[in-house]
Amino acid sequence: EDKVVQSPLSLVVHEGDTVTLNCSYEVTNFRSLLWYKQEKKAPTFLFMLTSSGIEKKSGRLSSILDKKELFSILNITATQTGDSAVYLCAATQGAQKLVFGQGTRLTINP
Amino acid sequence: EPEVTQTPSHQVTQMGQEVILRCVPISNHLYFYWYRQILGQKVEFLVSFYNNEISEKSEIFDDQFSVERPDGSNFTLKIRSTKLEDSAMYFCASRGTGRAANYGYTFGSGTRLTVV
After folding, report:
1. Is residue A14 over pLDDT 80?
2. If you compute the radius of gyration of chain A from its CA atoms, what whole number of angstroms results?
3. Is B107 part of the contact surface with chain A (CB cutoff 8 Å)?
4. Cα angle for residues B87, B108, B88 (degrees, 5° grid)
């Protein structure tokens, strides 16, 4: 059965801390791994990773994929209260389908 | 920035009634999807749609569900006879091709369906 597992499920840190969110996957016909931020409703796109070992960066966020060990991490440095959200990891299975993890609820306290 | 638009944002319906959830994908996208998220659970794939036909569907997407692209802009999900367990947030998503595909799937804000 295809599955994506995220850890931790919940994380509370202080503003300014650095956090690392984990995502492991076992998905047939794997193509790519995506990270999304979900605040109130719509998941908003952060990164799509297709190649192993190549870090993608966007401001304070970065992510990397390890296709040998079947995992990805999302790093957020110098966290701000606006980073509080549920972070979703999803793997593409075959040509079309996204298989989602259960999400990590990140809370940044001032 | 282009958006996927979903209407209504919230719908309450009686068990056994038919509902139609509407979506306007990003205009130059060619792949369309419906996902759902039951409260407190994972986002689950329902169906993908390309070239005016279903390309893949999950076990959840049984005969009670159907999708349609009635014109060049709308993409709808119909549930014929709603059940209590259909209560969930339903997300529409679309995806581009070529360079646009590097930006992943764009999700709408969702329709919260409550079946009573």
Report:
1. yes
2. 13
3. yes
4. 10
Give residue B55's pLDDT: 92
Virtual torsion, Cα A107, B110, B6, B62, nearest 10 deg: 160
Q: Which residue has the tokens 């689950």?
A: B44
Q: What is the pLDDT of residue A94?
A: 77
Give B-chain residues touching A97 at CB under 8 angstroms.
45, 48, 56, 58
Q: How long a stretch of residues is chain A?
A: 110
**To the nearest whole angstrom, how far is the Cα of A32 from the nearest Cα of chain B?**
10
Mean per-residue pLDDT, A18-47:
93
Closest chain B CA to residue A42: B109
DSSP characters for B52-112?
A: TEEEEE-TT--TTEEEE--SSS-EEEEESS--GGG-EEEEEEEE--GGGGGG-EEE---EE
Say yes or no for a CB contact (<8 Å) between B107 and A43.
Answer: yes
- For residue B9, which amino acid is it? S
Residues 6+ apart with CB under 8 A from A12: A107, A109
Q: Can you tell me the distance from the alpha carbon of A67 to that of A85, in angstroms, rounded to the nearest whole number?
A: 26
User: Which chain A residue's Cα is nearest to B5?
Assistant: A42
| Chain B contact for A89 (CB, 8 A cutoff) | no
Residues of B in contact with A99 (CB under 8 A): 45
| pLDDT tens-digit readout, B3-38 | 899 999 999 999 999 999 999 999 888 899 999 999
How do beta strands B88-95 and B75-79 pair? unpaired
CB contact B65 to A (< 8 Å): no
